Amino acid sequence: MDYIRAFIVGGVICALVQILMEKTKMMPGRIMVLLVCSGAVLGAVGFYEPFLEWAGAGASVPLLGFGNLLWKGVKEMIDKEGFLGIFMGGFKACAVGLSAALVFSYLASLIFKSKMKK
C-alpha cells in the first residue's frame, strides 16, 4: 500500500508543478529553483523528513529532495565548522550527484548535437 501512496504523492507534486507552469508566466528554470528552495525550507522547518517517511519515494522527487539534501549538508557543516559551513555544506553533501550530472551532461554534449530554436 505504501507504493500507491508514493505514486499518488509524486503525481500530485508533478501535477501541481504542471498547473503552475500553465497558469503562470514562470519559466521552467524558475519553477525548478522554487522546488529546490521549497525542499530546503521544508527541511529547515522540520517538515520534510516526516513527509518523506509518510509519502515514501513520492516525496523525494528530485528537486525537492535535492533542496533538502543541500539543507542537511549545510546544517551539518555549520555544526562542525561554524560560519564557513554555510559555504561548504551544500557542496559536500551533494558532490557525487553534481559530479555525475556534470560528467553525463558533458558526455551527452559530445554525442548529440544541439539545435538552436529560432
Tell me the span between the first and last alpha carbons.
Answer: 48 Å
Average pLDDT: 86
State the share of residues found in helices, binned by percent.
over 70%
SS-derived structural category: mainly alpha
Q: What does the largest sheet look like? A: none
Count of separate structural domains: 1
Low-confidence stretches: none
| Outline type | globular
The topology string of helices and strands comes to HHHHHH
3D structure, described in words:
It is a single chain. The chain is mainly α and 118 residues long. It has one domain. Helices cover 79% and strands 0% of the residues. It is built from 6 helices and no strands. The chain is globular.
Keywords:
118 residues; mainly alpha; 6 helices; 0% strand; globular
Give a brief description:
The chain is mostly helical. It has helices at residues 2-23, 28-44, 48-55, 62-81, 85-93, 95-111. 79% of the residues lie in helices and 0% in strands.
Describe how the helices and strands are arranged.
Layout: H1 2-23, H2 28-44, H3 48-55, H4 62-81, H5 85-93, H6 95-111
Helix pairs in contact: 2-4, 4-5
